């Protein structure tokens, strides 16, 4: 065999193998200490990209789950208020039935009408005070927005539909508003039933509050009170609202919902407006009976709609919980380390490192055999 001392090939080979074992041992230590199989892109570039997308989806699903829980709470608030309104309307039916009978005298009918009027006021109070985070739920303005506004209003002081804050009663159908502006510092808003005139102290940028109609109109510096907004019209509608229960802008990832309008100045889908009801006379009480039946049916229908939405949201929440669990499990199979398998690899590399160190020492001693050739 050839004996050389300038180049110790055996030592070089042992050192190379020792370096590999040391690198593998370091990687095992990194994985065992972090709990992740992928700690940097070089560990598994494709796996990191896939796991990263799954992780983002999980975070979005968690927020969607929170949306669903909050939406259920919101619906429960609205449905709880409707429950009391339904009880009140049922009581109104009892009062009207009693007042419509000839065996009730005028004085008794007057007392019944006092309670009847008080309960109507309570319906309006509940409808106006039922909110969720500042959002009216059953006042007829849930999702209210402005549509079909007269064109070319930007040059007159109204920048656009976003400049009109609508919180007026709009019922279940479109409500049309018209602005009448004169040159005497007054501006009027009407919906055909209610009209309010506001006297302005100045022109230019300001917010004009038509509180009787529940509408605020914000004008900019282009407004100079020169009859320019006269006969400006806009329509207010109830827009469908959506609960985001998924991660994309897709119809399958949100649930549409609407709320009813419990205000007494609407006809509840039939009959006449509750605000005009009275049981002070036999005729008035008899005329109110059918309208009360329409109100009872309307409230029951809206409660049923909210119950259906609540059940749907409940199933959506359960599905999201399962989706979150399974998506996290999928990410775990890619990103997380198998501790048992990695510990086996760690032990192997540890032994190889120790053996490689010993063999490098032996390889470094091998050239000393050359000394035996010198006599």
Helix-strand makeup class: alpha+beta
Q: Quickly count the domains.
A: 3
General shape: elongated
Q: Could you give the distance between the termini?
A: 19 Å
Tell me the CATH architecture of the largest domain: Up-down Bundle
State the strand order across the main sheet.
3-10-5-6-7
What would you note in describing this structure?
This protein has five helices and twelve strands. Strand 5 and strand 6 form a beta hairpin. Helix 1 (9-34) runs antiparallel to helix 5, helix 2 (45-99) packs antiparallel against helix 3 (106-129) and helix 2 (45-99) runs antiparallel to helix 4. The protein is of the alpha+beta class. The strands form four sheets. A five-stranded antiparallel β-sheet has the order 3-10-5-6-7, with no helix packed on it. The chain has helices at 9-34, 45-99, 106-129, 282-335, 339-365; strands spanning 131-132, 135-136, 144-147, 164-166, 175-181, 186-190, 195-199, 206-210, 215-219, 232-238, 241-244, 254-257. The chain folds into three domains: 9-35 and 337-373; 47-139 and 261-330, f41 fragment of flagellin, N-terminal domain; 144-239, no CATH class.
Tag the structure with descriptive keywords.
f41 fragment of flagellin, N-terminal domain, single chain, 50% helix, alpha+beta, 5 helices
How are the SSEs placed, and which strands pair?
Blueprint: H1 9-34, H2 45-99, H3 106-129, E1 131-132, E2 135-136, E3 144-147, E4 164-166, E5 175-181, E6 186-190, E7 195-199, E8 206-210, E9 215-219, E10 232-238, E11 241-244, E12 254-257, H4 282-335, H5 339-365
Antiparallel strand pairs: 1-2, 3-10, 4-9, 5-6, 5-10, 6-7, 8-9, 11-12
Helix pairs in contact: 1-5, 2-3, 2-4
């Amino acid at each position: 065999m050839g004996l050389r001392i300038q180049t110790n090939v055996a030592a070089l080979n042992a050192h190379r193998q020792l370096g590999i074992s040391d690198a593998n041992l370091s990687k095992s230590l990194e994985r065992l200490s972090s709990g992740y199989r992928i700690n940097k892109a070089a560990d598994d570039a494709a796996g990191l990209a896939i796991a990263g997308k799954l992780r983002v989806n999980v975070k979005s699903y968690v927020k969607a789950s929170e949306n669903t829980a909050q939406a259920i709470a919101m619906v429960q608030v609205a449905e709880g208020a409707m429950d009391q309104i339904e009880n009140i309307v049922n009581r109104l039916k009892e009062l009207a039935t009693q007042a419509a009978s000839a065996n009730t005298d005028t004085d008794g009918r007057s007392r019944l009408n006092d309670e009847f009027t008080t309960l109507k006021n309570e319906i309006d109070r509940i409808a106006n005070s039922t909110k969720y985070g500042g959002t009216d739920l059953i006042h007829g303005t849930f999702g209210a927005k402005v549509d079909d506004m007269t064109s070319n209003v930007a040059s007159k002081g109204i920048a656009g539909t976003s400049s009109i804050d609508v919180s007026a009663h709009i019922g279940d159908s479109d409500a049309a508003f018209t602005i009448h502006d004169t040159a005497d510092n007054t501006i009027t808003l009407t919906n055909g039933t209610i009209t309010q005139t506001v006297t302005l102290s100045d022109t230019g940028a300001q917010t004009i509050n038509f509180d009787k109609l529940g509408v605020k109109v914000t004008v900019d510096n282009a407004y100079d009170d020169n009859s320019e907004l006269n006969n400006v019209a806009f329509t207010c509608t109830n827009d469908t609202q959506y609960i985001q229960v998924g991660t994309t802008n897709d119809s399958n990832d949100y649930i549409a919902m609407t709320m009813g309008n419990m205000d007494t100045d609407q006809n509840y889908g039939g009959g006449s407006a509750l605000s005009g009801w009275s049981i002070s006379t036999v005729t008035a009480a008899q005329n109110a009976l059918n309208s009360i039946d329409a109100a009872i049916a309307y409230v029951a229908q809206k409660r049923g709609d909210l119950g259906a939405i609540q059940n749907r949201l409940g199933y959506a929440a359960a599905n999201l919980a399962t989706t979150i669990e399974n998506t996290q499990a999928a990410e775990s199979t890619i990103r997380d380390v198998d501790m048992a398998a990695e510990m086996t690899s760690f032990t192997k590399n540890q032994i190889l490192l120790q053996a490689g160190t010993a063999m490098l020492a032996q390889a470094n001693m091998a050239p000393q055999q050359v000394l035996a050739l010198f006599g």
